Structures are given as structure tokens and as C-alpha cells.
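Sample 3 of the quickstart, ligand zinc ion:
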Amino acid sequence: MSEKVAVFDTTLRDGEQAAGTRLGSREKVLIAHQLAQLHVDVIEAGYPASSPDDFEAVRLIGREITGPAICALSRAVPSDIEACGKALAKAHRPRIHTGIGASDIHITGKFQDERYGKTLAEKKVTILQMAIDSVKLARQYADDVEFYAEDAGRADPGYLFEMIQAAIDAGATVVNIPDTTGYAVPEQYGALIRAIREKVPNIDRATISVHCHDDLGLAVANTLAGVLNGARQVEGTMNGIGERAGNAALEEVVMAIRTRSDYFKVHTDLIASEFHRTSRLVSDMLGIQVPPNKAVVGGNAFSHSSGIHVDGFLKERETYEIMRPEDVGVTESRVVLTARTGRHGLRDRLKKLGYSLGIQELNQAYQRFLAVADKKQEVFDEDLVAILQDEFHPVPETYQLEYLHIYSGTSAIPTATVRVRVKDGTREGAAIGDGPVDAVCKAISGVTGTSAKLARYEIRSVTSGTEALGEVTVQVEEAGRRVLGRGVSTDVIEASAKAYIDGLNKLANFTR
Ligand code: KIV
Ligand code: ZN
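Result:
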């Protein structure tokens, strides 16, 4: 069996430090429950001394969550550590995470006051002592104490080794080597972890943890370099959220270790099929969207679009997928239909929709598909159904718009008058609405006597400039049937009326 790498999740602490976000204690508890489902080894729940809310979040999570260790952050300041101790008093497995700046830049920049010493050398002596004292104090509250040497990525290695050794002697069980500013590059960071293992005499009494930031987009690569060189705890956040450019994305680190176990030769205990759910929850609660191209949890992570890829993927999934979507909790891979998808992709989707076309019909449908795909980013299933209806079963025009007049303005009640040709002649009617589109739809409903409802409305410009053509797409629903209607005009209200009538014509001649 390979060695285990523990997973330390700091979504609720470092992740929540992402600009413009704030979680309440109840929201944090909800996320913590999901992190426990994911089987992370440690949840860093917050920084209790920073606010009463954070204190409460740590207290509640410590009391409610039983699986993972619950960790609280502090500076090397007695009042911070005491706050951690109190907040974690009822935790099943408490851990205190304390530490101090280790780089010359941090020491001279953050400890400018002369009470820390006049020269850099004097300050370094004081800081070292503060590190020792903080670990000793933290050990009075918890048996599990993690020490962080802040900005280790830019620290003088000799001083860093001395600090780590002293922290372990003072009782630290885990030593965290943060690349706080995301400055390191993988080879160098890996070499630093290796040097710590070789040069710190008591290192076998502690676990080395890696904590990397993404300022140069290297957080995951640096974390993995740390693992290759002996780190046995990885720190990160879901979706890679965090201060500035964020932290190492845990889902990426874990899936790299798992997918390339042949290379890393270690494992984690995470239940990866919980990744998708966890990612969604964190994104929703913090209001930070996951980019579609994000590895593992992005909306496009298991989507295929270009003809060559779709063709290969449909023949043999492994040609273009190194992970199975279900392994990370995504139901299935997706073929996104675009102008580049190709005939094979189209035929496969049509088959899934229940249409088996012969070669000639497929070619015909493909030409229409290309015409639509050239105008849209993605062709949806409803578009395909509309194409097939049009191409092979043109919809008779039960209703035809003959005349439309709109009265609307900033202080006027929007009113629409319409004349529609129906089977037995023409009908005219008027209606008021919440807006001009609403008034038009109501007027058309009135003259056609339909009970159809507008279920979705979308507008986009087909061309640019003030004379742009507007394309309106609607979904119209009646008695459990839902169809797509489309209308194009330089006047968006007219485009809306045409789209609505198109939808009503399809409902009146519903064939599928
Ligand atoms: O990035 C960092 O150095 C940190 C420490 C507080 C662990 O987040
Ligand atoms: Zn950090």
C-alpha cells in the first residue's frame, strides 16, 4: 500500500479571505459538513481572534463535526492562541495552527517596532523565541499543533531550518512550509522540502505540510512538487479560492495524485465523487463562479466539442478523457454541439433524442445545423428538434401576424394592438401588459384564444450596430407540451411577436 497524504482544507479560512466574500457561521457549518462527506483529514474552520463570528463558526464546527480534525488559526500572539483554545474546547479532534513570518521581508516589514530588536539579526532572535513560545502555549490547549513559517518560500533557508527545528522541539506535530506569496517555482519548492527533510535533525517527529498560493499559477504544481519530495500533508481550498489569486485547488491536487498514482506513488483518503457537489456548494455560498474551463470541477471539464475529439470520444472515451466524470461526481460527459462538432456528433445526439436519420436526411439536417451553429455559441436539443421539424415536417402557419402596433413610453402603460390571420379570416385585439413584450403576447393570446404560457424568453443581436437584427427565442408551454419559437427583426418587439406566434403554430401542429 502506498503512503497516505493527508488533506488539509482551508476553504473556510484562507478561501474565505478571497476579496469580497464573507460567510456567516451557519453557512460555514453547512460547508464543513460537506467537507466531512468529502473525507478531508483537517478542516481549518477559521481564525477565532479575528471576529466574534469566526469564533462562533469554529466553536460550532468543532462541536458538530466528528470525522476530520478541526483546526483554528492564530498568529504567534498569546491572545490569539487562547481564543483558538476556547473556540476548540468542545472539538472532538482539535488542532491549533500557529506561526509567524520567517522571511527577512516579513520580519523587517511586519516587525518594524524596536521592541522586536533594532537590527535584522536581533529581530530574528526575537521572532524565533515567539515561534517557540506560541507552540508551547498552543500545546497547553491541544495535543495537535501545526506551526507555519509564513513566507517560507522567500525565507533564508538556514533560518527557516532553525525555526522548524525549534518549533518541533517546542511540540509542533505538523510543520507548514507556506509559499505565502506564490513566489516559488516547482523545482525550487520541491528542493526546499527535500532540504528540510535532510537538514532539520528532528523532522521525523513531525509531518511536513505544503501550503501554496497561486500568484504565478503554480500553486498546484508547487504542492505536487512538495509531495514528490516528502510532504505528507497538502493544504488548499475548493475551487482554488483564496487571498489574491487563491490557493492550490484541492480537487486538482487530489485528482492529480489519484490519476497519476503511477507517478506520485501516494494516495489520499478523499471520496472524490463528492468533489462536484462540494464545488457547487462553495461556489453558491461564496458567490464565486467556477470558470467553465476549470480543471476537474469546471462546466467544460468533461465537455467535448470539436469534430475530431467528439468522433474519438464517441468511439472510445479514453481517447480524450483521463478521468471519468462519475469519479468526481459529474453524471456524464457532454458533447457540446457547435459548428465544429461534425456529423458523427450530430448523429449521436439526434439518436439520443429519438431520431434515426438515413445518410441523405442526416446530410440535409447537418447543413441546417451548420447554418444555426454559425450564429450561436452552442446548439441545444430544442434547436435540433426545431431544425428537424422545419426540415422534415414544416409547420403550417395556423396563425400569421399581419399588423402590430405598440404604445409604450416612460410614463405610459404599454399597450399592444395586433391583427392575426387565422383559418377563417383575420382577428384583431388589444391588451395592456407589464412591458411591451408582455402586452404583445397577451394581445396575441387574446385573438388566438390560446392558454399557452411563455416559459422562457431570450434575446440576442444577430448583427452589430444600431440597425442590428434581434433574434428572439421563446419557449411556449401548453398542457404539458413545451416548444421553441423563433423570430427575427430589426425591431425587437416585432421579433418577440413573431417568436411567440411561431411557438403557437408549433403547439397547434404538435407532431412529436
Ligand atoms: O499563506 C499563508 O502563509 C497562510 C498561513 C497563515 C498559513 O495562509
Ligand atoms: Zn495561505
